[in-house]
């Protein structure tokens, strides 16, 4: 067992608060959004309709369902579907600003993008989660049709409706998020140990960065309201 898991847990919590919502990193010196790779960057010949695609990031994983013909359905926080019905604007690649505002407003959309726009330069794993569900894997066509039926505006919740919930519902029939489970376990671990000054400091910093909230030396007064707000 770990001698003192709280500092590590608090660090993970801070990282999740900042990065779990799919914010794309910008290269050093960049003043704007990073353009996605050019079409043809990925070899899609090994993908089949209904495949579950994963793009591992440094601290999280983004998920989508392959629909064929270089198209991927995936759920992303986005503010635009709640303020406009202009499909041309909504279909443009989601910027970090749109994404962050979508998280704040708890709005999202299940959208269809090219593989390049979906992966944004990251490596792609195919059906990597199948091993966790064994006999629950639905037929590929059923998975693809489920994804297509859900395309459009939807609510967003880090705990109840994120990109992982979307793909596990489509491919396995039940919305599950292992990333969320790990996140909640981290929160419980920190709350159980009120003695950790480091945990309080890190969560306070996360609150300032994410919400502009003044720090507090008492952990629950900072984090629990934010946690419940995100849970929506």
Automatic annotation (TrEMBL):
Biological process, per Gene Ontology: retinol metabolic process; visual perception; vitamin A metabolic process
Gene Ontology MF, one: phosphatidylcholine-retinol O-acyltransferase activity
Pfam families in UniProt: LRAT (PF04970)
Top-tier EC class: transferase
Subcellular localization, as worded in the UniProt entry: Cytoplasm, Perinuclear region; Endoplasmic reticulum membrane; Late endosome; Rough endoplasmic reticulum
Domain LRAT positions: 52-179
Keyword terms, alphabetized: Acyltransferase, Cytoplasm, Endoplasmic reticulum, Endosome, Lipid metabolism, Membrane, Sensory transduction, Signal, Transferase, Transmembrane, Transmembrane helix, Vision
Pathway annotation: Cofactor metabolism; retinol metabolism
Entry GO terms, CC: endoplasmic reticulum membrane; late endosome; perinuclear region of cytoplasm; rough endoplasmic reticulum
Keyword Transmembrane helix in record: yes
Membrane topology type: Single-pass membrane protein
Matching InterPro entries: LRAT, LRAT_dom
Major location (coarse): cytoplasm
Active-site feature positions: 163 (acyl-thioester intermediate)
Catalytic activity from the UniProt record: 1,2-dihexadecanoyl-sn-glycero-3-phosphocholine + all-trans-retinol = all-trans-retinyl hexadecanoate + 2-hexadecanoyl-sn-glycero-3-phosphocholine; 1,2-didodecanoyl-sn-glycero-3-phosphocholine + all-trans-retinol--[retinol-binding protein] = 2-dodecanoyl-sn-glycero-3-phosphocholine + all-trans-retinyl dodecanoate + apo--[retinol-binding protein]; all-trans-retinol--[retinol-binding protein] + 1,2-dihexadecanoyl-sn-glycero-3-phosphocholine = apo--[retinol-binding protein] + all-trans-retinyl hexadecanoate + 2-hexadecanoyl-sn-glycero-3-phosphocholine; 1,2-diheptanoyl-sn-glycero-3-phosphocholine + all-trans-retinol--[retinol-binding protein] = all-trans-retinyl heptanoate + 2-heptanoyl-sn-glycero-3-phosphocholine + apo--[retinol-binding protein]
Entry EC number(s): 2.3.1.135
Transmembrane segments: 197-230
Signal peptide from the UniProt entry: 1-28
Gene3D superfamilies given in the database record: endopeptidase domain like (from Nostoc punctiforme)
Keyword Cytoplasm annotated: yes
PANTHER family the record matches: LECITHIN RETINOL ACYLTRANSFERASE
Family statement drawn from the similarity comment of this UniProt entry: Belongs to the H-rev107 family.
Function of the protein: Transfers the acyl group from the sn-1 position of phosphatidylcholine to all-trans retinol, producing all-trans retinyl esters. Retinyl esters are storage forms of vitamin A. LRAT plays a critical role in vision. It provides the all-trans retinyl ester substrates for the isomerohydrolase which processes the esters into 11-cis-retinol in the retinal pigment epithelium; due to a membrane-associated alcohol dehydrogenase, 11 cis-retinol is oxidized and converted into 11-cis-retinaldehyde which is the chromophore for rhodopsin and the cone photopigments.
Name the UniProt record assigns to this protein: Lecithin retinol acyltransferase
Organism expressing this protein natively: Alaudala cheleensis (Asian short-toed lark)
Lineage of the organism: Eukaryota, Metazoa, Chordata, Craniata, Vertebrata
């Amino acid at each position: 067992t770990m001698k003192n898991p709280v500092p590590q847990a608090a660090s993970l919590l801070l990282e999740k608060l900042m990065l779990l919502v799919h914010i794309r990193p910008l290269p050093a010196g960049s003043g704007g959004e990073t353009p996605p790779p050019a079409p043809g960057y990925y070899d899609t010949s090994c993908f089949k309709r209904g495949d579950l695609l994963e793009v591992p990031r440094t601290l999280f994983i983004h998920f989508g369902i392959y629909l064929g013909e270089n198209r991927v359905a995936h759920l992303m926080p986005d503010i635009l579907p709640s303020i406009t019905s202009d499909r041309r604007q909504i279909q443009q690649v989601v910027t970090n600003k749109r994404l962050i505002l979508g998280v704040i407003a708890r709005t999202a959309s299940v959208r269809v993008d090219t593989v390049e726009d979906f992966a944004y330069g990251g490596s792609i794993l195919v059906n990597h989660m199948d091993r966790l569900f064994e006999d629950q894997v639905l037929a590929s066509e059923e998975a693809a049709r489920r994804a297509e039926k859900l395309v459009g505006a939807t609510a967003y919740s880090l705990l109840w409706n994120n990109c992982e919930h979307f793909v596990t519902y489509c491919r396995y029939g039940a919305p599950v998020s292992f990333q969320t489970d790990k996140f909640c376990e981290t929160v419980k671990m920190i709350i159980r140990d009120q003695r950790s000054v480091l945990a309080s400091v890190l969560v306070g910093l996360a609150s300032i960065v994410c919400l502009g909230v003044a720090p507090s030396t008492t952990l629950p007064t900072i984090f629990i309201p934010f946690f419940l707000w995100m849970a929506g």
